User: Fold this.
Amino acid sequence: MAKNLKETVLSWIRPVGTFKFWKELVIMTLGMAVGAAGVYYFLMPSKLIIGSISGLSIVLSELFSGIGWTVRVSTIILIINAVLLVLAWLLIGAEFGMKTVYTALILGPLVDFWSIVLPVEKVITEGVSVMNDPWLDLICFVLMLSISQAILFNINASTGGLDILAKIVNKYLHFDIGTSVTIAGALICCSAFSINPFRLVVIGLIGTWINGIAVDYFTDSLNRRKRVCIISDHHEEIRRHIVENLDRGCSIYHLEGGYSGEPKVEVVSLLTQNEFAELLNYLKEKKFDVFITAGNVSEIYGRWHTRNDSRDA
Assistant:
């Protein structure tokens, strides 16, 4: 048991010395800074309640204020996320849990950071919000939050809160993650009836729906791969280039030409957009006679690695 505990602790500490760890730490910090700016400059002044833990925290802060308790929004965010993080660690996995521990716990402090660096009062020139229009505030917040979420999902992290609930529902109930986020977000939006007029709640529900669409778009864009199919007499040279130079796997299929009846070989591989461009340049330089088809793939299940995996391991 002591040996297993030691191995577990070492598995947590070992990545700290890798380039991948520090790169992802910077990415997570910047991604959360974008999301926190959206919360502070657009969500909080307009009091729009979008389907998120930040929105729920605003509702609770207003309710506490109504009974004479002063509780900061950032404090409520921190408390709710702390509870959900325990669930993430136990139910989803250590890597996701560790990364989300960091991102979720810095959201509240980053909101306070923006309030110190550039107080919202200095940004608001007229009215009660930055854009002085609930629809423009909604669009700006959703855009910033969606970018933040997509960046974090791409490195197996999240902003915490609602994303954790969606992950848990997706893993154990096998609902589509977008559906899970939308349902949970809609419930949080409905809680805003206690502090906002009907019009603002409807705007929040629309914002939750747009947020789901935007997250899917940005996530698909970041995860997009090319499924490349190449038929050529130079299949061995092409296979070797993909495996040795692009550091990607590929599959070889033996075919028969439907028109000529001659035997053909097809090389199929999944590549990033940059790798696909490198492959096209290689084929152009070699002047190979090839027939290529390529399609976009946004979801991959099974073994997939980045070029830095061997160095970061």
